[in-house]
Amino acid sequence: MAYELKQELRLTQKLLLTPQLRLAIKLLQLSRQELVEVVRQELEKNPVLEESGGMTDAEAPPRSEEEKHEVEWQEYIEESEDSKGPVLDFSERDEDGFFEKAASTGTSLKDYLLWQLNDAPLNDRERKIGEFLIGNIDEHGYLRIVEGGGVLDEEAVKDATVEEVVGLIGVDAGEVKKVLDVIHGFDPPGVCARTTRECLLIQARRLPQREPLVEEIIERHLEHLANRNYKAIAKEAGVPVEKVAEAAMIITRRLTPMPGSGFGTDEARVIVPDVFIEKVGGEYVVFLNDDGMPRLRISPYYRSMLSNNGGSDGSDAKGYIQERLRAAIWLIKSVHQRQRTLKRVAESIVKFQRDFLDRGLMYLKPLVLKDVAEDIGMHESTISRVTTNKYAQTPRGIFELKYFFSTGMSRADGSDITAEYIKNKIKDIIENEDPRHPLSDQQIVAKLKESGVVLARRTAAKYREELGFLSSSRRKRHY
After folding, report:
1. Nearest to 205 by CA among 132, 255, 261
2. 94: burial class by Cβ within 10 Å (0-12, 13-18, 19+)?
3. In whole angstroms, what separates CA 211 from the centre of its chain?
4. Domain ranges of the chain
5. Handedness of CA 96, 99, 103, 108 (dihedral sign)
6. Which residues have a Cβ under 8 Å from the Cβ of 354 and sit 6 or more positions away?
7. 281 φ, ψ (degrees, to nearest 5)
8. Which one of 13, 127, 329, 370 has the fewest CB atoms closer than 10 angstroms to its CB?
9. Using CA atoms, how far apart are residues 326 and 225, in angstroms rounded to an integer?
10. How far apart are CA 286 and CA 394, in angstroms?
11. Dist CA 439 CA 382 (whole Å)
12. Which residues lie below 8 Å from residue 4, measured CB to CB, with a gap of 6+?
């Protein structure tokens, strides 16, 4: 075999990851709290950076430079993502990413509850309600949407809480109560209660061995228990004082009025909205949350030093200042890039989900990352990054931006419907079938087709299982 040496000229085009692009991408995926921390760290490390009360020329680069930077950034993201494979789409549930993290050591109470919610027998609509409820649980484990609590007027507090949820996200009271019942079965026992009485009662009903007297004391005599008035409890319950003392010991030693204790606190992860969505004059307007965000500028002292050829500090000092100046300009531009991108994405989401903002959860439209990406001319991976760990305060509550994304399907006539709608149709079909002759998955598909919904049998079976219904052979009843 003969070997031959050849010279070959090949022309390729490749965008390298510059430090400026790397920084821009890093800042884009940071939460607001993390961004503030990074900016403050840079202020401490870089003497060329200063915090200013107003915007300067350095803070707001010329528009042409911004646009050029944005194009380079998008090209890099698109090229790098295409070479790595499919883009992560947060319109699907990111089980391997989010929930693996949620189960790790030191997880917060909310993340632990969301992890359980993912495995609960709920449909997509009910999961959305569950996410909203869990998002309003305080560090002690209580659901806090309306003012109230304690052991007095319990039913009024509970009803008010449900009514508040109904008003905020536009769902039925029955749906809220169903999801609440499911979350009340989560660990730690007693979580998502609205009152102390409800919290303790949930725990008592989950004891290895039910204790009727314990439950009765919690339901009817909690005020006497708080005052250690065992005789009054014994008299009203018609039992010996010794029995009351034993039941009280179970309550004080095996139950807790603060089920959220023992989890990582959310103090460092308090949800602060990145954007505010407000209705002004009949239109929704997006405002960025700049509260607490340092305003950056280049130090006039070091700018002057460079203008004077470094003064008497020598070339080494001049080189150091120039390096720090470049880093400062990169940071300022990257922060502006992040904020501008975030606002554009939020404005696009508002355009797609106006019905939800006006009318509630049942009007949440099917939306995927590609829709927003095409709307604002950006890559899907950019939308994925900017909607993660970013929150919007809306007239209907605070939601993570990725909350507004959900998958949908098409009817036979081409109109869009959500997977949630299809699951509700399947639920209605099964609940109204003849239990002696339950419908097979193929028969369910045929029923759906009659209402204009075209669905594969395997998809119908998947949705049926997610709804908690057994196969037709196991649903059959014999009378």
Report:
1. 255
2. middle
3. 38
4. 108-254, 409-475
5. positive
6. 284
7. 60, 35
8. 13
9. 67
10. 10
11. 45
12. none
- Find residue 118's DSSP bridge partners: none
Q: What are the CB-based long-range contacts (under 8 Å, 24+) for 197-205?
A: 197/151, 197/154, 197/222, 198/154, 198/158, 199/141, 199/142, 199/257, 199/259, 200/251, 200/255, 200/257, 203/254, 203/255, 203/256, 203/259, 204/251, 204/255
Specify whether the CB–CB gap between 432 and 128 falls below 8 A.
Answer: no
Structure tokens at 93: 């549930």
Query: In angstroms, how far apart are the furthest CA atoms of the chain?
Result: 107
Fold of 409-475: Arc Repressor Mutant, subunit A (1.10.10)
Structure token pair of residue 49: 């950076």
Distance CA 414, CA 211 (A): 57
For 215, residues 6+ apart whose C-beta sits below 8 A from its C-beta are 201, 204, 205
d(CA 261, CA 263): 6
Q: Kindly state the tokens that stand for 185.
A: 């079965």
Strands 283-288 and 296-298: unpaired
pLDDT in tens, the chain (479 residues): 556 666 667 666 554 556 667 777 778 878 778 888 888 888 888 888 888 754 333 444 444 444 444 444 444 434 434 333 332 232 333 333 333 333 344 567 888 898 889 888 888 888 888 988 888 888 788 888 754 444 345 666 677 788 888 887 888 888 889 999 999 999 888 999 988 888 989 999 888 788 889 889 888 888 888 778 889 989 988 999 889 888 888 888 788 888 887 665 544 445 778 899 998 888 999 998 877 778 888 888 877 777 765 444 556 777 788 888 888 888 888 888 888 899 999 999 999 999 888 887 667 788 888 899 999 998 888 888 888 888 998 888 888 888 888 766 655 555 566 676 788 789 889 988 888 889 999 999 889 888 777 788 888 888 888 888 888 888 887 65
∠ Cα 325 328 333 (to 5°): 125
